[in-house]
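Continuing the batch. This is chain 6 of the set; chains 1 through 5 are on the previous pages. Same settings as before, nothing changed between runs. Recording input and output for traceability.
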Amino acid sequence: MLSMTQSPDDHAARIRSEASAWLARLRSGDCTPDDTEHFNAWLAAAPQHREAYRRAERLWADLAALSRVAQPQLRQAQCFYARSRAKRRWRAAGLAAAAMLAGILALNPAIWPWLNAEPYQTAKGIRRTVLLSDGTSIELNTDTALRVSYSGQRRTVWLERGEAWFNVFHDSDRPFEVVAGDGRIRDIGTQFNVRRDLDQVSVAVRDGEVAVFAKSQSAPLHVNAGQQTRYGEAGGAEPVQTSDLMAISAWRNGILLVKNRTLAEVAEELERYHPVAIDVTDAKLRGLAVSGRFPANDLELTLKTIATALPVQVVAVDRDHIAIRPNR
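Output for chain 6:
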């Protein structure tokens, strides 16, 4: 629960810090049964803990590609951690992480642009537009984090989580690329949307063209206006399809435009915009079809509308937890 003296940003930052510390501890090779018990209790204490830990795991996976060439430094850091005294475990975790990062930076100078890039982010329920020096604009949707690096040779954006709309000023001398998950999207003078979920990246183009470079794909996939594709950890990008740009871009006007989605999918989408966990445990309810136009910032109205249209009831379990159950 959020205390009366703690801001939402401070509360979220504290949870992210705790999640990172637990991840380091559990992967240290020196984790005890008592540690595991305390971790499980922390994880079960709040839905935000589970979400933060999933994101920490995702970040660890993203850094794996960078750390592969720095395995000696990583092993050295882990050994240092394992030798630390029990009463200094958490401090040792921080030192071990710092040692690993130093090794990665020494052998991977290409990571410096990412570290020096300008960060931009939004909280849940917040949208933001960033105007860059070349006239390019980036609209960040709810709960989005990205970094921007401009140099004389290239323009790079790392989409770390969430969703963004790019309106790019084309400059053939300085390519514009969005790095997301296991791939990258190169602009060829266009407007396009990129959404990054835990293991999937979706790309939809409104104007112009982009080239999508996905993992284990020998040649880029070209996506033109009115088309979309997606890629994940498994491999290359999926074949190009016609996109529903009205639904995809509705968030830019504060609208969730839902067309024949399951109730479970809609619940997950609402969790992106609001700091609550929405549980739909009944298997039959999870598969119910939902269509409609909902205000992204009004959870109460959205849930009331869904409850009116479907045989369900909405129950507020507590401040951070909502259950959708069969109507009785």
